[in-house]
Design a protein that fits this description.
The chain has 192 residues and is an alpha/beta fold. It has helices spanning 2-25, 29-38, 47-56; strands at 41-44, 67-70, 74-75, 84-87, 90-106, 113-116, 121-134, 138-141, 144-147, 150-162, 164-167, 170-173, 178-180, 187-191. The longest helix has 24 residues, at 2-25.
């Protein structure tokens, strides 16, 4: 009987040790949820990362539901950054500045963001530079060429050139879109 009790106790001790190891190795449900939530957050801390993000935004669905945060000011001097083609998520600049957004673009619908979708929420950053266009030159803005979403607490410093629908914040603000608390100062707008 004593042998049997020792065997049972030994089995229980082994099972208990295995349970402790498995429990400590398995992530908690909260950890898994936090990791899944963070997988949709993109932190940008360099010009190279911003260019990589912009290249991914060539596809309309890439930015949908994602959150982007700037971690620092970014200088675009001597880069080939040509703006973000399409954005439909949350872009939080965290009160940082993107400098030297200097581009020459041929065509229409152009800005730091070419198009902001209906779900786009862009906030809390400044852009400085010069947006020069040729060709059709319609819907040209410092922050967005065409806005279907919301732009708030953003500023643009510099020059924006176009022919029709030219703005420091957005070239054209579509019905239902919003621009709030976006002061305009030291911006030269030129509509030919």
């Amino acid at each position: 009987m004593r042998k049997r009790m020792k065997t049972v106790r030994g089995l229980w001790a082994g099972l208990l040790a295995a349970a402790v190891v498995l429990t400590s190795a398995a992530p908690s449900a909260l950890t898994v949820q936090a990791e899944e939530a963070d997988s949709d957050v993109i932190v940008i801390s360099s010009a190279r990362e911003l260019i990589e993000f912009a290249n991914n935004c060539k596809y309309d669905s890439y930015s949908r539901g994602r959150t982007v945060r700037l971690a620092t000011d970014i200088n675009l001097s001597n880069t080939d950054f040509n703006g973000i083609p399409y954005f439909d998520g949350t872009f939080d600049g965290a009160n940082h500045t993107i400098r030297s957004f200097n581009v020459d673009y041929k065509g229409s619908d152009y800005g730091f963001f070419r198009y902001l979708g209906e779900n786009a929420y862009v906030c809390n950053f400044s852009v400085s530079g010069n947006v020069n266009t040729s060709g059709s030159q319609k819907n040209i803005g410092g922050i967005a060429g065409v806005n279907y979403g919301t732009i708030t607490n953003c500023t643009f410093y510099g020059k924006v050139n176009g022919t029709t629908y030219v703005g420091a914040i957005a070239g054209i603000n579509k019905p239902g879109a919003n621009i709030t608390n976006c002061p305009v100062s030291y911006t030269h707008l030129r509509a030919h």
